[in-house]
Amino acid sequence: MYDKSSFKIKNNPVIMGIESSCDETACAILRGRKILSDEIISSAAVQAKYGGVVPEIASRAHTDAIGEVCEAAVKNAGISFSDIDAVAVTYGAGLLGALLVGLSYAKALAYALNVPLIAVNHIRGHISAAYLDDELLKPPFITLLASGGHTAILYTKSFTQFEVLASTSDDAAGEAFDKCARVLGLAYPGGPNVQRLAEKGQANINFPSALVKNSVRTQFSYSGLKTSVINYCHTLEQRGEEVPKADVAASFQQAALNPLADKTVEFARKYGVTTVTAGGGVVANGYLRERLIKECGKAGLKLILPEKRYCTDNAAMIASEGYNQYMARNFADLDLNAVAAIPLK
Ligand code: KG4
Ligand code: ZN
After folding, report:
1. Which residue, among 324, 176, 188, has the nearest Cα to 252 in the 3D structure?
2. CA angle, residues 40, 278, 251, in degrees to nearest 5
3. pLDDT (tens digit, 0 to 9) for every residue of the chain, 345 residues total?
4. Computed over its alpha carbons, how large is the radius of gyration of the chain?
5. pTM of the model
């Protein structure tokens, strides 16, 4: 077994990242921050039949896919397994059975290769997607994190430390998109489908903003907005009137996303940083991206917006966060277990 204390850190390590927290089985290889390969097999199409992710189906799909994605990642990176310097894996948060598939593979591989195992918090992975977009990016910066499980604005102080400046008191933004999609009769995953419908509509319905008014601390809430969308649709249906679904989607989207973009820029100004980054599945939303570009532009802030495929779940972001932990010599033991829920801080 390699000795943790005397382990020699390399400048441009080859890091394998593995992600299996939800319905994507993914593996990527990075040399430093450079992506050599990035493979993904998704069970989303199967899950769509059930209107959401069924944990047992996800676990079985990961079991079928894990060997294939990891072998493809090594092959497409043009390396051999023996070239890998560390194995980074999502250990939480996520579906326990799903996480265990990636974790078991990562542990076995790290042990066989006698290289460090790195435990990656999925959410930190989303934050670290920004480093893939700009290899020279250095903290401090303000990060907008918006996924299916989290919605927050963070002050990223260093490569391994962040402070939560604002968060949601109930649903995450992605969850709200998924629920709104269900009300509008759209398939899972809801976010992209709500966006597509919103592009055909007008934001002419006055839904409550996701920003909580009169709170001492900046706080978001999606429950009022969700209830409002449900009530609006049900009232029209009960009257036998047609629901203007595209307008509902467009109005919901603005109420859900405007405060996220605007508050992110406000915090960047307040903290005197020059750079804003973003991550998480909701950051793949075209409307949010445009708003961030516009608002950061007006405020003279540099915006690092990861490519859409690196906003939704992927393994390159896990390897990127693995790189931060590798440089900090933060290596896990082989008795590492999966954790279903990890608090943001
Ligand atoms: O980050 P992610 O892939 O997984 C989690 O860690 O949760 O985020 C998934 C969430 C889902 O709720 C999905 O509906 C949402 O991101 N999402 C979007 C879009 N693409 C994915 N929401 C709004 N617009 C999109 N284009
Ligand atoms: Zn995610």
Report:
1. 176
2. 95
3. 888 888 999 999 999 999 999 999 999 999 999 999 999 999 888 888 888 889 999 999 999 999 999 999 999 999 999 999 999 999 999 999 999 999 999 999 999 999 999 999 999 999 999 999 999 999 999 999 999 999 999 999 999 999 999 999 999 999 999 999 999 999 988 999 999 999 999 999 999 999 998 888 999 999 999 999 999 999 999 999 999 999 999 999 999 999 999 999 999 999 999 999 999 999 999 999 999 999 999 999 999 999 999 999 999 999 999 999 999 999 999 999 999 999 886
4. 20
5. 0.97
Residue length of the chain:
345
CA of 183 to the centre of ligand 2 (A): 23
Helices (H), the chain: 44-48, 55-77, 96-113, 122-133, 173-183, 190-198, 223-238, 245-270, 286-299, 316-327
For a ligand 1 pocket test, name from 312, 342, 344 the mutation site with the most ligand atoms within 8 angstroms of its C-beta.
312
> Residues near 195 by Cβ (< 8 Å), separated by ≥ 6?
249, 253, 285, 286, 287
Q: Which atom of ligand 1 is nearest to the CA of 174?
A: 12
Measured CA to CA in angstroms, residue 141 lies from 54, 145, 270 at distances of 36, 13, 12
Ligand 1 pocket, CB under 6 A = 22, 126, 147-149, 174-175, 177-178, 189-192, 195, 280-282, 284-285, 312-313
Q: What is the position in ligand 1's atom list of the atom closest to the CA of 178?
A: 14
Among 19, 47, 147, the mutation site with the greatest number of ligand 1 atoms within 8 A of its Cβ is 147
Ligand 1 atom closest to 150 (CA): 7
Most ligand 1 atoms within 8 A of CB, residue of 177, 183, 321 to mutate: 177
